Amino acid sequence: MRERGVPNIARREGLLSLFLGRPDGGDDHDLVLVSVWQDLDAIRAFKGDAWREARLLPEELELSESASVWHVLGESVGKDPHSA
Fold first, then answer.
1. Is 14 left (phi over 0), alpha (psi -120 to 50) or beta?
2. I need a surface site. Which of 2, 37, 38, 64 has the fewest CB within 10 A?
3. For residue 67, how many other CB atoms are within 10 A of its CB?
């Protein structure tokens, strides 16, 4: 994921932030990827009609038991802690 998946997502137009981590108290094999996009159109431009489905690269498929995706619509309510 870190070598190919993250760079594949990171270069996409409309991506604002990308975080890779593990759930607190989760299994060492669990991986969470959180992406923040400019708008729904940016997600659709990246994923096409399958924007509601998890997308894994072929080499990630053989390493994964399962994958899921959730979309949350939100709005900025304060300063971005990652901006200078």
1. left
2. 2
3. 13
